[in-house]
Amino acid sequence: MTEAQDALPPLFCFGYGFSAQAAARLWQSRGGRVIGTTRDASKLKAMRAENIEALLFDTVPADSLLTAGAILSSVAPLDDGSDPVLARYGSVLAASAARWIGYLSTTGVYGEAEGGWIDETAPRAPTTDRGRRRVQAEDSWLALHHDHGLPVHLFRLSGIYGPGRSALQTVLSGRAQRIDKPGQVFNRIHVEDIATTLWVSWEKPNPGCAYNLADDEPAPPQDVIAFACDLAGVPLPPLVPFEAAQLSPMARSFYAENKRLKNAKIKAELGVSLRFPTYREGLTAEWQTRAKG
Question: Which domain of life is it from (predicted)?
């Protein structure tokens, strides 16, 4: 075990969604305690069943934050771009002695690139309200680093998927659409690769840094659905023109931007080796686990 593992401090998670759960499981597997928040009192019991020290978001004791060695926020900004974590706990966080703070953002901060390749040196030029809110939230978190010297790291996530939340579930539920928008591609990132990258960043902190969390192959969404159909033995749904597709506002916002994300920085700086470098490995592993029962 490394020195960091020998004396692993508590991980405090603001928000306990899909990505935070994966990070928590990895932290626990290394022998660390995890504290997590939720706004939904009905989720406390389930979190505690996972050995999470669950707290309601509005009732976090200052000591829980001040004694955490690592702090992760996956809480989205409000409609006005303000960050609810910093609005309520910013003054406490400013006094934190945490060795590592991570904020989960989105690659939507880069905006439209007409299919071009984007790395972390690209200017943030969001073209959606969601992206603009994330830029404002990123700046608020970075202010903790610049103004108080805190070890804040930004992680810009591509489309998140993993067991129970992937194209396989869409296909098996009968809700799959193969949406045709010529030239459109997306990167994805498996939730386990998110957790691994966060862990390695904890071991190799670089405060003030931003990282793209993306797979190796930006791909058209209809290709991913076709691969999932092939795995599951489900007939291909027909191609639907983008303009006629039934999409939620959130899903439609993803199609508003077209870019290819470079992930060289997490590999070169952190030494991350993606377990699921493309959607094929991720969906295949999920299908094999499902088939085993």
Answer: Bacteria
